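In this supplementary section we document a worked example of the pipeline. Step one takes a protein sequence of length 93 as its only input; no multiple sequence alignment statistics are reported here. Step two produces a three-dimensional model, which step three serialises into structure tokens for compact storage. The input and output of this example are shown verbatim.
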Amino acid sequence: MAYYTPPKGFFCRSKFILSFCTIWTFNSFLALILHLRGEVNLKGNWIVHVWFCFCGVVVAILLLSFCLLSDVRIWWVQILGKGCDNSYWCSPT
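The serialised model returned by step three reads:
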């Protein structure tokens, strides 16, 4: 039910946060698998180390972008499209 009835004005923010949470969850799952295999550090597997560093940079950029997007409402529309324009929902009719 919640999937088909997103709250007004928060759908674009939810899509943005979903991308951040997907990366975070995938990396946590990968780290769990590596830990269960007995790997104590990532120095032996440089591909995984590079992947975690790359995803860390992406997550940092997403968080910074979210802070900037939270400050200016019109940026949501300019970056993510007209579907994110919720200015008419709050205006008196």
